[in-house]
């Protein structure tokens, strides 16, 4: 993966339901007033603010743009910051991420402007028709042919939700930031589940999402092999 260049802005991609709220609190401490949010306002239906990174960034005050970058909804990396060349993110098992997303959106989506994005069907029906948005958050289009190159060329570090403390420690090391691995990591924004995940759904889901699992498995093998 690439080395962090303090002279250039950084984007931290918050893939939804992958530990990003917990990690966000850490990035806010690291970057202070150089921390810039990038989130679609679901209640108002408003796109994220566009920041002038050339004006805001400097070596003495580096900035990070942190948030959701969804190409399919017109607020992706290329839509806002096509000149940024360095990224970090945290990924989660795509099936677990989809299940978590289902329960979160059903709980939080009551106040959203677009009620069409709030699932009304049972979990198994939702998962059988779910189109994973995970790779829409990446800085460029990902395919089975290029996903390894995207990870190796664009990212400084790719962490795993399943190893969040270790992931943040590695990101801290790459960015030259402090991180106390012995502190109790507080997991934020977890959503209770009121339905049981039926047997067999995971295997069906994997078969329908080969690219997402290829990306996740590659990132996981890289992470666990170090």
Description:
This protein is α/β, with parallel strands linked by helices. It contains 9 helices and 5 strands; from the N terminus they run βαβαβαβαααβααα. The protein has a 5-stranded parallel β-sheet, with helices on both faces. Strand 2, helix 2 and strand 3 form a beta-alpha-beta unit. The mean pLDDT is 92.
CA-based shape: globular
Strand content: 5-15%
Q: State the helicity in percent bands.
A: 25-40%
Structural class: alpha/beta
Taking pLDDT < 50 over at least 5 consecutive residues as the criterion, the unreliable ranges are: none
- Number of E strands: 5
Strand order of the largest sheet: 2-3-1-4-5
**Count, helices:** 9
| Radius of gyration, in angstroms, nearest whole number | 17 Å
N- to C-terminal separation? 13 Å
The biggest sheet, with number of strands, parallel, antiparallel or mixed sense and barrel status, is:
5 strands, parallel
Assembly state of the chains shown: single chain
Average pLDDT value? 92
Order of helices and strands: EHEHEHEHHHEHHH
């Amino acid at each position: 993966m690439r080395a962090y260049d303090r002279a250039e802005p950084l984007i931290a991609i918050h893939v939804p339901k992958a530990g990003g709220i917990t990690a966000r609190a850490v990035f806010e401490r690291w970057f202070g007033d150089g921390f810039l949010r990038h989130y679609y306002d679901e209640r108002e239906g408003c796109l994220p603010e566009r920041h002038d990174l050339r004006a805001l960034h400097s070596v003495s005050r580096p900035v990070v743009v942190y948030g959701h970058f969804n190409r399919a909804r017109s607020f992706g990396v290329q839509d806002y910051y096509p000149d940024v060349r360095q990224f970090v993110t945290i990924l989660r098992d795509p099936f677990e991420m989809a299940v978590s997303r289902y329960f979160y959106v059903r709980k939080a989506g009551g106040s959203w402007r677009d009620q069409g994005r709030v699932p009304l069907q049972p979990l198994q029906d939702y998962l059988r028709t779910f189109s994973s948005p995970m790779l829409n958050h990446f800085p460029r289009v990902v395919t089975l042919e290029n996903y390894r190159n995207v990870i190796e060329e664009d990212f400084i570090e790719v962490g795993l939700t399943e190893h969040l403390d270790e992931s943040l420690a590695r990101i801290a090391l790459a960015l030259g930031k402090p991180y106390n691995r012995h502190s109790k990591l507080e997991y934020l924004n977890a959503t209770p589940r009121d339905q049981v995940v039926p047997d067999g759904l995971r295997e069906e889901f994997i078969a329908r999402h080969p690219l997402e699992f290829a990306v996740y498995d590659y990132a996981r093998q890289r992470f666990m092999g170090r």
